[in-house]
C-alpha cells in the first residue's frame, strides 16, 4: 500500500462513500486518497461508478453517506473535463476559449497566452474553426484544453484519451506527468488499463468499491506480473471469492452524508462570468441563423395566418331559393328594390325584398323551380340552406300586417316562408341565422317606410317589443376574430419565450454544457440574468411585430392605452420565460421538455377562455380556470383592446370601492394592478 500520507499532502480524500440511484447502488463504501502533485488513475469497467464518484468529488452530486474532502477551496482551482464533450457546437474554438476564460476570470491577454500554449501542446487546429467542424478526436482535445485553460491545481479528467490516436494519447500523458511534477494533482479515468502505468497511483474499481489502490509498480510486483490487466483480473477473481458479504438495503439508508466542504465561488454574481454568459448567448444567437429567423418570423407568420384565417364570417355560401310567387325571381325581381313602394300597394312582390337583402349579404343563391330538387341539393350538402316562399306569400303578409289580430288563419299560415339551415357547422349556422334575421328585419323596414301613417303604426307594432341599446363594454359590430385576438396575442407572447428558453437551456442541459458550466462556477443568477436580457430584447421585437400586424395591418380594434398593453405583454412574456426555465430544469431531457411544453399548451389553451367564454366551461373547470397563468392576462388584454375607455376614464385610485371591484371583474386583475403601477 502507499505509505500513509500526512493530511497536508492529501489533495482529495473520499471516505466510506455511498451513493444510490433509486434501487441501484453505485458507490458502496468506497475509500480513495489522492496525494498532492500526483496522477491518480481510476480504472474500472463501464458502469462501475467512476463518473458518479468524480461528480461527487467536484460537488455536482451529493453522496448518500460518507465524505469527500478537497484541499482545493475554490471552484477555479479545479479543472473538470466531463466524459461527454459538453461544448457549444455552434461556437468557434476561439469563442469557447474566450467564454471559459471569462468564466474563470482570466484577462484577454491571459486567455491568448494560455490558448497559444494549449493549441501547441494538444496539436489543435486553427482556433477560428467551429467546434461542429472538428473531428471527434479534435473535439475531445478542445474539451481537455477547456479544463486546462485556467491552469488549475486539481484536474479531474473523465476519459480524456477516448478516441485519440495512441501517439497523441502518449503525448497527453507526458504533459500530465510534467504537470504533476509542477505540483498539480490529476485524477484521470480510463478504460485503457495499460496507459495508466504512468500514473503515480492506480485505483482499481469494481461494482462501486476499490479492489486496490497502490502504485502501478507495487501492484505488478505483488501479483508477480508485468501486465496491469492481469492484476485487475486477479483482483476481480479474489473479489468474486469474497462475495459472501451481502449488501443489504439497510446499508444504503444510513442517513445523510457527512457535510462536505463545498468549493467556494467567491460571489453569487461576478461581472466577468456574467459577461462570458451574455456574450456566449449573443454568439449562439448570431451563429444560429435559422433559429434567429424562426424567432422573428414566427410572430409574423402566426399573426398573418390568424388574421387571414380565423374569426371572419364565412362568405359566398351556396343557398337555395324556391319562390312560388314569381318564376325566375333572381332574374325577374327588380335589380334594386324600389324604396318608394309601400307594402300595401298592388303588384308588389315581398319575397323580392327579402331575396335582395340576402343577396346583399354575399350568398351564392341558386334558384329552383321545384322544392323537391332544392331539398335534395340541400340534403346532399350542395347548399347550406334553403328558403321557400309560398305562392300567396305577398297577399298573406299584406293581410297579416294590415289586419293583425283580425287576419285569417290561412293568411297567417301562408305568411311564413320556410327556412332550412345546415347545422353541421356551428359558426355557419349562427351566421345564417343572424343574416336571415337581420335581412328580414331590414327588408320589412324598407317596405314599411313609404306607407301612410296609419300603416306605419301597424308596421311598428310588428317589431319585437325590445330595444337594443348601445353596449357599455365592447361593440355589437365586433366579430369572432375580435374576441379571439387578445387570446392569440397573449398565448403567442407567453409561448414564444417558453419555446426559446426551453430550447436554449434544455439543449445546454442535454449536451452536458450546463453541468460543465455550473461546475466551472457560473451561478444560476448569472445564467438566468444573461438569458433574460437577451430574451427580453427578442420579446420586445416579437411584441411589436405581433401588435403591428394584428392592429395596424389587419385593423383589429384597439381602443385602450398602448403603454398599458405593452406592459401587460412584457409581464406575460416574463411568465412564459419563467415557465420555459422551469420546464427545462425539471424535464429529464429536451424531448421531455418539448412534450411537456406542447401538452401544457393544449391544456392551457382549452381552459384559458381564448376562444370560448370562461362562464361556458363545466363547473369543475370554472373552479380554477381563472387561476391558470393565461386567463387573467387574456381578460385584461381583451379589456384594454376592446373597451378600455371606461377603465381609462374613471380615475382608478379615487374610484368608489364598488367601481373598483367592477373594474377588477371586467378588466382583470393584471390590468388593474398595472394601471395602478403605471399611473398612480
Ligand atoms: N443520474 C442517474 N440516474 C440513474 N442511474 C444512474 C445515473 N447516473 C449513473 N447511473 C448509473 O450508475 C451506474 C454507474 O454509472 P457511472 O456513469 O458512474 O459509471 P462509469 O464507471 O463512469 O461508466 P463508464 O465508464 O461507462 O462511463 C450505472 O449503472 C449507471 O447506469
UniProtKB/TrEMBL annotation:
Transmembrane segments: 289-310, 483-505, 532-554, 566-586, 592-614
Domain of life, per lineage: Eukaryota
Main location: membrane
Subcellular localization: Membrane
Pfam (any one): ABC2_membrane_3
Keywords assigned: ATP-binding, Membrane, Nucleotide-binding, Transmembrane, Transmembrane helix
Name listed for the protein in its UniProt record: ABC transporter domain-containing protein
Species name: Bemisia tabaci
Amino acid at each position: 500500500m502507499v505509505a500513509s500520507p500526512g493530511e497536508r499532502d492529501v489533495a482529495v480524500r473520499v471516505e466510506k462513500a455511498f451513493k444510490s440511484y433509486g434501487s441501484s447502488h453505485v458507490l458502496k463504501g468506497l475509500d480513495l486518497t489522492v496525494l498532492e502533485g500526483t496522477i491518480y488513475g481510476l480504472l474500472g469497467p463501464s458502469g462501475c461508478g467512476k463518473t458518479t464518484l468524480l461528480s461527487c468529488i467536484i460537488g455536482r452530486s451529493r453522496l448518500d453517506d460518507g465524505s469527500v474532502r478537497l484541499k482545493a477551496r475554490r471552484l477555479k482551482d479545479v479543472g473538470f473535463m466531463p466524459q461527454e464533450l459538453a461544448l457549444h457546437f455552434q461556437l468557434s474554438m476561439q469563442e469557447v476559449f474566450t467564454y471559459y476564460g471569462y468564466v474563470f476570470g482570466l484577462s484577454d491577454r491571459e486567455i491568448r497566452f494560455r490558448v497559444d500554449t494549449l493549441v501547441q501542446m494538444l496539436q489543435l487546429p486553427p482556433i477560428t474553426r467551429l467546434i461542429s467542424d472538428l473531428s471527434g478526436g479534435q473535439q475531445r482535445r478542445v474539451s481537455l484544453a477547456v479544463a486546462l485553460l485556467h491552469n488549475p491545481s486539481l484536474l479531474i479528467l473523465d476519459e480524456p484519451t477516448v478516441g485519440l490516436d495512441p501517439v497523441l494519447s502518449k503525448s497527453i500523458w507526458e504533459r500530465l506527468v510534467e504537470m504533476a511534477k509542477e505540483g498539480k494533482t490529476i485524477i484521470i479515468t480510463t478504460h485503457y488499463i495499460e496507459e495508466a502505468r504512468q500514473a503515480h497511483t492506480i485505483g482499481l474499481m469494481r461494482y462501486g468499491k476499490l479492489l486496490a489502490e497502490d502504485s502501478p509498480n507495487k501492484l505488478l510486483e505483488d501479483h508477480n506480473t508485468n501486465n496491469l490487466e492481469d492484476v485487475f483480473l486477479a483482483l476481480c477473481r479474489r473479489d468474486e471469492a469474497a462475495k459472501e458479504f451481502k449488501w443489504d438495503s439497510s446499508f444504503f439508508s444510513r442517513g445523510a452524508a457527512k457535510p462536505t466542504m463545498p468549493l467556494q465561488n467567491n460571489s453569487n454574481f461576478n461581472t466577468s462570468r456574467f459577461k462570458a454568459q451574455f456574450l456566449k448567448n449573443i454568439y449562439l444567437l448570431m451563429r444560429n441563423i435559422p433559429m434567429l429567423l424562426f424567432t422573428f418570423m414566427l410572430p409574423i407568420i402566426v399573426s398573418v395566418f390568424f388574421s387571414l384565417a380565423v374569426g371572419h364570417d364565412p362568405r359566398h355560401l351556396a343557398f337555395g331559393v324556391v319562390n312560388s310567387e314569381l318564376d325566375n325571381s333572381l332574374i325577374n325581381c327588380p335589380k334594386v328594390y324600389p324604396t318608394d313602394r309601400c307594402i300595401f300597394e298592388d303588384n308588389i312582390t315581398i319575397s323580392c325584398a327579402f331575396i335582395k337583402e340576402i343577396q346583399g349579404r354575399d350568398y351564392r343563391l341558386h334558384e329552383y323551380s321545384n322544392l323537391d330538387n332544392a331539398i335534395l341539393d340541400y340534403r346532399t350538402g350542395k347548399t347550406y340552406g334553403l328558403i321557400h316562399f309560398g305562392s300567396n306569400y305577398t297577399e298573406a303578409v299584406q293581410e297579416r300586417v294590415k289586419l293583425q289580430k283580425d287576419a285569417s288563419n290561412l293568411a297567417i299560415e301562408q305568411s311564413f316562408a320556410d327556412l332550412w339551415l345546415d347545422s353541421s357547422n356551428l359558426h355557419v349556422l349562427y351566421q345564417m341565422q343572424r343574416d336571415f334575421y337581420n335581412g328580414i328585419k331590414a327588408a320589412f323596414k324598407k317596405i314599411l317606410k313609404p306607407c301612410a301613417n296609419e300603416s306605419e303604426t301597424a308596421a311598428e307594432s310588428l317589431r319585437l317589443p325590445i330595444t337594443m341599446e348601445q353596449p357599455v363594454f365592447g361593440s355589437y359590430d365586433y366579430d369572432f376574430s375580435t374576441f379571439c385576438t387578445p387570446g392569440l396575442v397573449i398565448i403567442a407572447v407567453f409561448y414564444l419565450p417558453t419555446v426559446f428558453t426551453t430550447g436554449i437551456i434544455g439543449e445546454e442541459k442535454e449536451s452536458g454544457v450546463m453541468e460543465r458550466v455550473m461546475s466551472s462556477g457560473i451561478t444560476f443568477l448569472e445564467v438566468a440574468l444573461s438569458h433574460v436580457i437577451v430574451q427580453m430584447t427578442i420579446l420586445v421585437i416579437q411584441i411589436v411585430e405581433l401588435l403591428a400586424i394584428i392592429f395596424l395591418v389587419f385593423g383589429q380594434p384597439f381602443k385602450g392605452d398602448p403603454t398599458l398593453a405593452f406592459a401587460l405583454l412584457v409581464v406575460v412574456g416574463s411568465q412564459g420565460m419563467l415557465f420555459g426555465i422551469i420546464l427545462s430544469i425539471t424535464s429529464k431531457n429536451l424531448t421531455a421538455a418539448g412534450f411537456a411544453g406542447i401538452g401544457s399548451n393544449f391544456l392551457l389553451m382549452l381552459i384559458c377562455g381564448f376562444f370560448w367564454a370562461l362562464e361556458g366551461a363545466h363547473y369543475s373547470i370554472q373552479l380554477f380556470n381563472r387561476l391558470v397563468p393565461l386567463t387573467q392576462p387574456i381578460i385584461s388584454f381583451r379589456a384594454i383592446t376592446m373597451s378600455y375607455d371606461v377603465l381609462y376614464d374613471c380615475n382608478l385610485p379615487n374610484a368608489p370601492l364598488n367601481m373598483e371591484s367592477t373594474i377588477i371583474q371586467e378588466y382583470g386583475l393584471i390590468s388593474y394592478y398595472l394601471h395602478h403601477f403605471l399611473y398612480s
